[in-house]
Amino acid sequence: MAESFHPAYICVGGIIIDDIVYPNGRTAMGVLGGAVTHAAAGMVIWGQRPGMVANAGRDLPEDVRLRLNRDFDLQGLQWLDLPQARAWQLFEWDGRRTEVFRVDEVDPFLHGPDVDALPDAYRAARGAYLLCNGTLAPWREALPQATLLWEPNQHFMTRENAAAFRAALPLVDIVSPNLLEAQTLYGEPDPAALVRAMLDDGAPVAVLRMGERGSIAGRRGDPDLLRVPAVPVEAIVDQTGAGNTYCGAFLVGWCETRDLAQASCWGAVAASFALESTGVADPPPNYVALRDTRYRELMNRLAVAR
Asked: Domain for residue 272, yes or no?
């Protein structure tokens, strides 16, 4: 893309190459991954060409480069003189995932670029997805007009970092951990209580992702929480990155509509396409009609539930 392109949405993080081992022993090797890439794919599903502010290694495979160029604006891609981060993703039958990195230097990929890597063309973005620890003030300053969705790095979500997590919440517009991460940090098992805790601690909008159990979202000042089921799919091919895909789509939905139900349904629909793909969501060419059908059916389910 020409350098004059100014994407409406951007994603910040690191690119990972995944070697996936499923519970039944099936494997998928050399798969494009990384939360930032999955989140950006969620934006693509809802009609965007997001910009990526991400770290990549010197030996990033050529097929991966082609895929990145196809779907994303890469003005913010940072090439590191390091081996590309690669990791085993080991799944258990209950959905638990163990990540084991296969290279020695992983910190630059786990924590992503710093704010100095942000291209000028990205500074007027409407929305930004951030996968990072609690260091959010520089991003808030660099993107004053953007709606910031923070997906906390899973390594950050520990009881020891509870105070830092709470301190960061007022700096963002949306926070979205998954259920296990939030339970670990707060020591609270109940999903609804976790959403309310994040809102009470300063999050304007909190979205708790719960895999096959769907999601729960809330807005500060509103006593009611919104529960959205997962979109059923005929066969789950790969669950890697479905939650990240949800986040990217939710951010676009929220910025475009300011409606919690619509944004949550955009996220759930995008996640369903991720479940049907190996690695980063890659719907078929005629997916828009299917996307819109899934969205309408999910919104109708919400209307009936209410």
From this structure: yes
Element of type H or E holding 303: helix 287-305
Range of the domain at 122: 9-305
Four-point Cα dihedral 267, 269, 273, 279, nearest 10: 10
> Who contacts 32 (Cβ-Cβ below 8 Å, separation ≥6)?
15, 17, 18, 64, 67, 68, 279, 280
**92 domain residue, yes or no:** yes
Residue 169 DSSP one-character state: G
**One-letter amino acid of 164:** A
**pLDDT one-digit tens code per residue, 80-137:** 999 999 999 998 887 778 889 998 888 888 877 989 999 999 999 999 999 988 889 9
> In this structure, is residue 1 part of a structural domain?
no
CA pair distance 225, 148, nearest whole angstrom? 21
Token pair recorded at residue 192: 């609804």
CATH number at residue 74: 3.40.1190.20
How many structural domains comprise the chain?
1
In a domain, 2, yes or no: no
Q: How far is CA 109 from the centre of its chain?
A: 15
- pTM score over 0.90: yes
Which tens digits make up the pLDDT trace of 28-47? 999 999 999 999 999 999 99
Chain-centroid distance, C-alpha 180: 15
**What is the spatial distance between Cα 126 and Cα 128, in angstroms, rounded to a whole number?**
7
